[in-house]
Amino acid sequence: MTSAITIKEVTDKAGFKAFVTLPWALYKDDPNWVPPIIMERLEVLDKDKNPYFEHARAKFWLAYKGNEVVGRISAQIDDLVEQQHNEKIGHFGFFECTNDPAAAAALMDTACAWLKSEGRTSVIGPFSLSINEEAGMLVEGFDTPPSLMMNHALPYYQDLMTGYGMEKIKDLWAYYLKFNQPVLPPTIDKLVKRSMRDGKVRLRRINMKNYTRDLRIILDIFNDAWTDNWMALPFTEAELNKAVKDMKLLIREDFTYIAEYDGVPMAMMVTLPNLNEIIADLDGHLFPFGIFKLLWRLKLNPRYKTVRVPLMGVRKEFQNTALGGAMAFALIEECRIQAEKAGCTHAELSWVLEENTRLSKMLETIGCWRYKNYRMYSKTL
Q: How many separate domains does the chain show?
């Protein structure tokens, strides 16, 4: 006889450790999975350390078959979602599970029941924890490792979702760009040069001496540029402060640019070293020696070949204008040039909403191709 599935809420240190480390067992035979840094994952779930919990609450569960952990899930209620979108939507996230529909259903039942008891009328996910962190479930592109701050999944997860009755609500696309030539076609190159000829448009690197000021400018442009997007949420002041602090180790002056128009910041692009490439062999541990390997590989002797563009945006007043497009193209080309100078060979630009045809066409114009798809699922409660 098969053992029954038992669901237990995670409430203590040992439970959170089991929650975070479950993927090691599930992905042990997957060469493309990258072990996350355990300490960092625990901090994300810590209500005292993550400012997300200043406006949201969450519960976490593990699924057991006998004494063996076979799955995990979270459920979140973010007050900002209702404030911004006027809907009583709940979220689920951190879904991992063996290929067992009964275990997956038990996890989803538990998460959905709590959300419904809290007055939510529908559930969307996975968000781990929010749309500004890891979003979507990988459904295409299993043959390559995930990039920085993007997730991985097992191919059968999508069957577990649809088998439970979850329906696709949105796809989030990741694009790949190989650095083997200038990316701007001649007509686009002329547009960029013409737009910058009168000196009103200027690209400048982030100034690390004024790092806090400049990164706050970048995140403010992000909040403005993406505010009308599907399920978009602004960074709160506390989240801005934490992002400024957390990103300092990864930010490079030559990879991070702000576009100004008449001296006013109007667009930005952040290109980050692909941390997943750097930590792949650390097995999730920074201590005792992982931290030194990380710093050496990141700062002292950088040998990474891949980068990711997680933040790019043009303020709304310049969106859908030739000048806005020119600023975006100029940022992409400058960041490509600098990344190639640093020895990098390709970039991931992610993620892009499936209905954002303007950005998709822009990326395809410069030689990018879609190579991963992250799916969002929903269900009425």
A: 2
Residue 61 lies in a domain: yes
Are residues 187 and 122 both part of a single domain? no
**Residue 40 forms part of a structural domain:** yes
Are 46 and 166 found together in one domain?
A: yes
Each residue of 226-270: pLDDT tens digit? 988 999 998 899 998 898 899 998 999 999 999 999 999 999 999
- What's this model's pTM, rounded to 2 decimal places? 0.95
Does 127 lie in the same domain as 35? yes
Give me the long-range contacts of 149-156 (CB less than 8 A, separation at least 24).
Answer: 149/275, 149/308, 149/310, 150/174, 150/308, 150/348, 150/350, 150/351, 150/372, 150/374, 151/374, 152/27, 152/30, 152/32, 152/33, 152/34, 154/26, 154/27, 154/30, 154/99, 156/99
The verdict on residue 358 lying in a domain is no
Look up the CATH number of the domain holding residue 213.
3.40.630.30
- Residues 41 and 62 grouped into a single domain: yes
Q: Is residue 86 part of a domain?
A: yes
User: pLDDT digits over 113-152, tens only?
Assistant: 999 999 999 999 999 999 999 999 999 999 999 999 999 9
Residues of the domain holding 113: 5-172
Name the domain boundary from 172, 202, 225: 172
